[in-house]
Design a protein that fits this description.
The strands form two sheets. The protein has a four-stranded antiparallel beta sheet with strand order 1-2-3-4. It has a three-stranded antiparallel beta sheet with strand order 5-6-7, with no helix packed on it. With 187 residues, it is an alpha+beta fold. It has a single domain, classed as 3-Layer(aba) Sandwich (Aminopeptidase), CATH 3.40.630. It is globular and about 35 Å long. It is built from four helices and seven strands; from the N terminus they run βααβββααβββ.
Length: 187
């Protein structure tokens, strides 16, 4: 594997290719679709010119990535802080997942990023274990206060009001553990 950085449109092309490879390899593994990241790209962000971390195989195909997107400008109904996205192929070994996460966290530290939000598929025991091993915590109510989060269904209700935008956006958690956003006013 060759570690490389991608910036700007080169980042977008590489992350799109990687997420499409992930989806082709497995219909449900992973927390993101290529279209989500492309949507994020549609709004200019402070992280657009930040070198993003990728690993490519000997054929030049992306195999893994650790990227960060800044949502601190209020442009997201879900994220406020820089959002960490860790992507590995579905057949990645636990050792490889650990390496990617550890290298990604070290890189964020090099960049001076101290706190991030992230989503992890609740079925991804390997990724969860690695992140828990680095002090990441599940935050009740899906909110962060300086530490990353892992999405989970609240014990009492499947709808959580997002305090930054009360009445405008509700975050709904489906049975699969993924978040969806509705722009309908809260009842």
């Amino acid at each position: 594997m060759q570690e490389q950085h991608r910036v700007g449109i080169d980042y977008l092309e590489a992350v799109t290719a990687l997420l499409q490879r992930v989806r082709t390899a497995h219909p449900t593994k992973g927390s993101y679709e290529a279209a989500e990241i492309q949507w994020w790209w549609s709004i200019q962000r402070s992280t657009d010119n930040l070198p993003q971390l990728f690993w490519f195989d000997e054929s030049g195909r992306p195999e893994a990535a650790v990227t960060v997107t800044d949502f601190g400008d209020g442009s997201s109904a879900v994220y406020e802080d820089p959002t960490l996205v860790v992507i590995v192929m579905p057949d990645a070994t636990p050792d490889w997942v650990e390496h990617v996460v550890e290298r990604g966290l070290a890189y964020l530290t090099e960049l001076g990023i101290r706190a991030v939000e992230l989503e992890v598929d609740r079925a991804d025991d390997v990724m969860r274990a690695v992140l828990f091993g680095h002090g990441f915590k599940i935050h009740p109510g899906f909110r962060l206060s300086g530490s990353p989060y892992l999405a989970r269904r609240p014990a009492d209700d499947s709808t959580v009001r997002f305090p930054r935008n009360p009445g405008l956006c509700q975050r709904l958690l489906s049975d699969t553990g993924y978040l969806a956003c509705s722009t309908q006013p809260a009842q």
